[in-house]
Design brief:
The complex is a heterodimer.
Chain A: E1 3-6, E2 10-12, E3 18-25, E4 33-39, E5 46-52, E6 57-60, E7 68-73, E8 78-83, E9 92-99, E10 113-117
Parallel strand pairs in A: 2-10
Antiparallel strand pairs in A: 1-3, 3-8, 4-5, 4-9, 5-6, 7-8, 9-10
Chain B: E1 4-7, E2 10-13, E3 19-25, E4 34-39, E5 46-50, E6 54-55, E7 63-68, E8 71-76, E9 85-91, E10 97-98, E11 102-106
Parallel strand pairs in B: 2-11
Antiparallel strand pairs in B: 1-3, 3-8, 4-5, 4-9, 5-6, 7-8, 9-10, 9-11
Classes of the chains: A mainly beta, B mainly beta.
């Protein structure tokens, strides 16, 4: 069974860094693109970026370029999202989601990781 | 960036009625790269439709997608109480963007 299991909720102070994880099972991380999507409380979905674990390519949405690092560890079958210089507006659910090569849709999605930034 | 505008913001209908959700793009792109998702409170989004009109595995046939160019629609032919959710469109023809969502309420 294909599954994406994300790490637990985080509470961080402004200006600090958080790194959340997404462990995949049921498929090879190197055979797919792993994406991250942000959802602020009560808001819609916003694409953060993706990693191609096979060749190491990483693409970020313009809004997140510079403050976010996406990575993958194929030995652990895990993708990561790191956000630096946290501010209150980074408070959100962050989802990992898979896209197969040649496809354009997300399936499946992780359960989401809530990051709360508060002093 | 392709901006996807979904309308209406909220749709309130009775069980058995037909729901038509719109997703309009700010510019044209490869039109086969549109997907729709359903999100219920406290849950991750779930894929409903991909490639404009293909139902994902396990999705009831009362859900259908259509459109081309810059105008796409998701239709729920006969609303069930469990269809109460927020629905998002998404494109991946030019970068990757989501629409703002349409909330479907069942009376």
């Amino acid at each position: 069974e294909v599954q994406l299991l994300q790490s637990g909720p985080e509470v961080k102070k402004p200006g600090t860094t958080v790194k959340i994880s997404c462990k995949v099972s049921g498929f090879n991380l190197t055979d797919h693109y792993m994406h991250w999507v942000q959802q602020a409380p009560g808001k819609g979905l916003e694409w953060v970026g993706l990693v191609d674990a096979q060749d190491g390519d990483i693409i970020y949405a313009d809004k997140f370029q510079g403050r976010v690092t996406i990575s993958a560890d194929t030995s652990l079958d895990t993708a990561y999202l790191e956000l630096r210089g946290l501010r209150s507006e980074d408070t959100a659910l962050y989802y990992c989601a898979r896209i197969k090569p040649g496809a354009h849709w997300f399936d499946p999605w992780g359960q989401g990781t809530l990051v709360t930034v508060s002093s | 960036e392709v901006v996807l505008t979904q309308s209406p913001g909220t749709l309130s209908l009775s069980p058995g009625e037909r729901a038509t959700l719109s997703c309009r793009a700010s510019q044209t792109f490869s039109s086969s790269v549109v997907a729709w998702y359903q999100q219920k409170p406290g849950q991750a989004p779930r894929l409903l439709i991909y490639g404009v009109s293909n139902r994902a595995t396990g999705i009831p046939d009362r859900f259908s997608g259509g459109g081309s160019g810059t105008d796409f629609t998701l239709t729920i032919s006969r609303l069930e109480p469990e269809d109460s959710a927020v629905y998002y469109c998404q494109q991946y023809g030019s970068s990757l963007t989501f629409g703002g969502g349409t909330k479907v309420e069942i009376k």
